[in-house]
Specification:
Elements: E1 41-43, E2 45-51, E3 62-66, E4 71-75, E5 81-84, E6 88-90, E7 94-97, E8 106-109, E9 114-121, E10 132-133, E11 138-142, E12 145-149, E13 154-156, E14 169-174, E15 192-197, E16 202-212, E17 222-228, E18 242-250, E19 256-262, E20 264-266, E21 270-274
Parallel strand pairs: 2-9
Antiparallel strand pairs: 1-6, 2-5, 3-4, 3-7, 7-8, 10-14, 11-12, 12-16, 13-16, 14-15, 15-21, 16-19, 16-20, 17-18, 17-21, 18-19
């Protein structure tokens, strides 16, 4: 990710004015950083069967086997099957499926030298033509989600990854919890999840979140909001894991879930659970 730490909101932060897409806030937002010392181990083999929500194979789906120290790109075959042998020593390795362009990206931590991840569902993002352009401030909506950008704040895209300006539009897709247990461990108790794009866009201050109460949670229910760490820099979330970034509550009319404290600091996959 380019300039994910938000050290500056001026063009100097990224080297040249045409590489920065942001509005300049009056204060600097420092990335907390979540680096944790971890021992490397050798990842010898990773297997998975990738399908579309329709059940059809996710042919040629882009995937990655990435640790903090090395990242290897692969693609599923025409039958949606993946069987790769990285034979690499990796720190905190994870299997990431989806590319943040055509598909939402999710991460599955790898804890063994050889691992069969079973069946994984690839989630197509809406077409770019249906994405929402980023305003300098105010509401940014797509699908079930709305982000609220602070009038005195700003945002910054990862323009090395999203070099084409047409891809820098907000898009979201619902993640089926039951079919995504490898990336959304049942122990977390998540009940709602979404894949977002463009990945790596950062907000200063963190964007407030509103989303439709699609599960009809009772009014005034307290909710916790998490983001998944997809970036090996670990500046905004621990890599491959989930970090709580906000508190939220179901509205009095039961129509929406709105953040009450904290917010979304970086576009990634997000998940919610009731307290």
């Amino acid at each position: 990710m380019l300039c994910v730490g938000l050290a500056s909101w001026l063009s100097l932060a990224c080297g040249s004015s045409d590489e920065t897409v942001a509005s300049a806030p009056p204060a600097v937002c420092e990335a907390p950083g979540y680096h944790v010392e971890s021992s490397a181990f050798t990842v010898n083999q990773v297997r998975a069967a990738l399908s579309m929500p329709s059940g059809e194979p996710a042919s040629a789906l882009p995937v990655q086997v990435c640790g903090l120290n090395v990242c290897l790109p692969y693609k599923a075959n025409q039958s949606g099957l993946l069987n790769v042998a990285p034979h690499q020593s990796m720190v905190l390795p994870a299997f990431k499926y989806g590319d943040g362009f055509d598909f939402a990206e999710l991460a599955v931590p790898l804890g063994a030298a050889e691992q069969d991840l079973g069946e994984l569902v690839a989630l197509p993002l809406p077409p770019l033509s249906e994405g929402a352009k980023f305003p300098n401030s105010g509401a940014l909506s797509n699908g079930d989600l709305t982000l609220h950008l602070d009038v005195h704040g700003g945002f910054e895209h990862d323009v090395l990854t999203y070099s084409d300006e047409s891809a820098r539009v907000f898009r979201s897709v619902s993640v089926p919890i039951a079919q995504s247990a490898q990336a959304l461990p049942p122990s977390f108790g998540f009940e709602l999840a979404y894949g977002l794009a463009p990945l790596g866009t950062t907000f200063c201050p963190a964007a407030k979140l509103s989303l439709k109460n699609t599960l009809d949670w009772p009014p005034e229910t307290d909710v916790e909001v998490f983001v998944q760490g997809l970036d090996v820099s670990e500046k905004w979330a621990p890599y491959g894991s989930w970090l709580q970034v906000a508190e939220a509550r179901v509205s009095s009319d039961g129509q929406s879930i709105d953040t009450t404290s904290g917010g979304i600091p970086i576009l990634s996959s997000i998940a919610l659970r009731r307290k």
